[in-house]
């Protein structure tokens, strides 16, 4: 029964939700950041590393752009993992560390790299980590 909703939920991988709303991904606000390249690198790493990458409209904390939410896999959720919100994800190092953590299992299964701990942000009140695209 691989197509049943229960099976799909049990097999759900770690997912990165990448904000590309009003401020995240805006070259006018962050002219030195390669926003398209960041998304390409994350998608390539996800294809190789077994995690998903989704793009969302504005997630809310615009003053901390670029925002990426690392959602746990089903196994990570079962181990106590919860979504982790990261802000200021603008450079190649943070992109690589986010991909490395997702490849290792993400929340609940692997500890984040130390630098990402410094990028943790509080989600806005009532925030959801769904994907618009």
Descriptive keywords:
133 residues; alpha+beta; 4-stranded mixed sheet; 5 helices; globular
Notes on the protein architecture:
This protein is α+β, with helices and mostly antiparallel strands. The protein is built from five helices and four strands, in the order H-E-H-E-E-H-E-H-H. The protein has helices at about 5-10, 35-50, 75-80, 90-105, 115; strands spanning about 15-20, 50-55, 70, 85. Strand 1, helix 2 and strand 2 form a beta-alpha-beta unit. Helix 2 (about 35-50) runs parallel beside helix 4 (about 90-105). It is globular.
Put the structure in a nutshell.
The chain is α+β, with helices and mostly antiparallel strands and 133 residues long.
Radius of gyration: 14 Å
The helix fraction, in percent, is: 25-40%
Number of strands: 4
User: What's the main sheet like?
Assistant: 4 strands, mixed
- Number of helical stretches of at least 4 residues: 5
Distance between the termini: 27 Å
Could you name the ranges where pLDDT drops below 50 across 5 or more consecutive residues? none
SSE topology string: HEHEEHEHH
Taken from the alpha-carbon principal axes, the silhouette is globular
SSE topology sketch:
Layout: H1 5-10, E1 15-19, H2 35-49, E2 52-56, E3 68-71, H3 74-78, E4 84-86, H4 92-103, H5 114-117
Parallel strand pairs: 1-2
Antiparallel strand pairs: 1-3, 3-4
Helix pairs in contact: 2-4
């Amino acid at each position: 029964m691989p197509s049943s909703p229960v099976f799909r939920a049990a097999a759900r991988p770690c997912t990165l939700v990448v904000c590309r709303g009003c401020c995240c991904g805006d070259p006018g606000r962050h002219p030195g950041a390669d926003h398209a390249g960041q998304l390409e690198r994350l998608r390539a790493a996800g294809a190789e590393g077994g995690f998903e990458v989704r793009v969302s409209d504005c997630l809310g904390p615009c003053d901390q752009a670029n925002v990426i939410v690392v959602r746990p896999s089903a196994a990570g959720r079962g181990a106590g993992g919860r979504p982790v919100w990261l802000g200021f994800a603008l450079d190649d190092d943070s992109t690589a560390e986010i991909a490395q953590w997702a490849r290792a299992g993400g929340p609940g299964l692997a500890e984040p790299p130390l630098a990402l701990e410094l990028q943790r942000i509080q989600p806005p009140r009532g925030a959801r980590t769904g994907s618009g695209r």
